[in-house]
Amino acid sequence: MKPNVIAHVSRQGSPTPAFRPAARFFLRGFQRHAFSGLAPILLAAGLCLLTACSIPLTTAQTDLTRYFLLTAAPAQREADAGAPLKRWIVGVRAVEIAPYLQTKSFTVRSHANEVSFLDSTRWGEPLDLGIARVLAEDLQPLKNMGRVSTQPFRADEQRDFEILVRVTACEGTADGEVRFSARWRILAPAAVVGTVAEGSYSAAGLRWDGGDYGQLAAKLSDALGGLSRDIAVALPKEPAGSPADSGHTGTPAKNDQGHPSYPSAAK
């Protein structure tokens, strides 16, 4: 005799044995005991997840820093107005800048005793090296220049003159003025007297719009052009092929004591 089985219809339409409620009872008991041990773990994992979601994620930011260079005037050899001049071999020995300028940031003077350093606007090279480079490039095409070099000098090069420069101002102002001033000295390495000429230079009449830093760099470059012309004018003027011209090195003639002699610089 077959057992009396009561059939139930499942959702799929297939018969389900009557003992399914008993299985459901045992399954619930198992779940209650199994998950009671996992509850602390799940709770801790949930808290960690919430904490992680609350931490702000760092996002990549675009570097807005801009870099500028000083530039020399377009090279164009000066024509000799009169008799050709002797061309000297000159070296830019050193450029010293005021301590407050010894930074890569652009400097803007907002008041007489207040300056601002712009972290997002910088020089593309150390300012003293940039000034030395442009000064040499500006001097090279002038009519009394044979060759102009910067440090480090070649060991086999004999220079007629060396130039020392100390820059005391190199900045823009908040009201649009461009400030550049320097003191310079010309030395004759082979001469006992040492200093041949010295002077000072301050740029005049240069303006910028107060916000275009490329324009400010260009105006400061113009100021360096003026400095180079002042220095070139102060060098001795000798006709090419004069007795003072002693060969390829351009070494000046020597006086009766055997020391190099230099004519007065043209004014």
- The second-level CATH architecture of the largest domain is 3-Layer(aba) Sandwich
Rg value: 41 Å
Flag low-confidence runs: 5-10, 243-267
CATH topology of the largest domain: Rossmann fold
In helices, the fraction of residues equals 25-40%
End-to-end distance, in Å?
139 Å
Strand content: 25-35%
What's the structural domain tally? 2
H and E string: EEHEEEEHEEEEH
Protein structure class: alpha/beta
Largest pleated sheet:
8 strands, mixed
The CATH superfamily of the largest domain appears as: ABC-type transport auxiliary lipoprotein component
CATH class of the largest domain: Alpha Beta
How many helices? The count is 3
Write down how many β-strands occur, each being a DSSP E stretch of 2 or more residues.
10
Average pLDDT taken over every residue? 80
How would you sum up the global shape? Answer: elongated
Can you put this structure into words, describing what you see?
By secondary structure, the chain is of the alpha/beta class. The chain folds into 2 domains: 8-44, no CATH class; 66-234, Rossmann fold. The protein is 26% helix and 27% strand. It is built from 3 helices and 10 strands. The protein has helices spanning 20-54, 127-139, 213-234, and strands at residues 8-9, 15-16, 66-68, 88-97, 105-111, 114-123, 145-150, 161-173, 178-187, 195-202. Strands 3, 4, 5, 6, 7, 8, 9 and 10 form an 8-stranded mixed β-sheet that branches. Strands 1-2 form a two-stranded antiparallel ribbon. A hairpin with a 5-residue loop joins strand 1 and strand 2. Residues 5-10 and 243-267 have low confidence and may be disordered.
